[in-house]
Write a structure and sequence with these properties.
Length: 201
């Protein structure tokens, strides 16, 4: 079993293995390239397609961005991400259509064991020090808005049309059509027609 296969099987994996470092390196280099370009440079947005698992025809990243793998992230149509998007996609991340990220949104589909000797361990035969991780997938539905400084942890499902308030840390599932916020993030109320801002037109 490869280290990447261990990730998808829900096993502990060695984040420092050459296999995974090589896989991540492509995304890291291309993120650097993206971040170095002017936002009006026509070659900037196509760079995303060079490392992403899948993305719709229409998308925008303000940048800077940082993906850990990129190839483990799958994004639908009409995606928008504001400044400083960080995606730790050790586990797979699925993002629906018409999703918006505010500034400083982080998706963290990875974690470490709590017991120190399980996080780092020496293989004495070759001196290699492993850094053990495990990863759970993240699912974000259609028409979701994650406001600024939201952090979503692995294993979370966010339902269609949900809004996650600024500064929230999402550790558990959020149902569709709900406003949720806080640390830890909790569903607060359903979104209704009373929330319409059409009067501002």
């Amino acid at each position: 079993m490869t280290e990447e296969e261990r990730i998808f099987a829900g096993r502990l994996f060695d984040a420092r293995s050459k296999e995974l470092r090589d896989l991540k390196h492509k995304a890291h280099v291309l993120c650097q390239k993206f971040n170095a370009l002017d936002e009006y440079d026509e070659g900037r947005l196509p760079i995303i397609r060079e490392f992403i698992g899948r993305i719709g025809e229409n998308y925008y990243f303000q940048g800077p961005i940082q993906f850990n793998y990129g190839c483990h992230t799958f994004i639908g149509e009409n995606f928008f991400a504001n400044f400083n998007t960080t995606i730790m996609d050790d586990g797979r991340i699925f993002i629906g259509d018409n999703v918006m990220f505010g500034p400083n949104v982080s998706l963290m589909a990875t974690s470490h064991p709590l017991i120190p000797t399980e996080r780092t361990a020496m293989r004495y035969e070759d001196g290699h020090v492993s850094m053990s991780e495990y990863a759970e997938e993240i699912y974000i539905g259609n028409n979701v808005w994650l406001a600024c400084n939201v952090v979503v942890l692995g294993g979370v499902h966010i339902g269609d049309n949900a809004v996650i308030g600024a500064g929230s840390v999402v550790t558990k599932d959020v149902p569709e059509n709900f406003v949720a916020f806080g640390n830890p993030c909790k569903p607060v109320r359903r979104i209704t027609e009373k929330d319409s801002k059409m009067n501002l037109l």
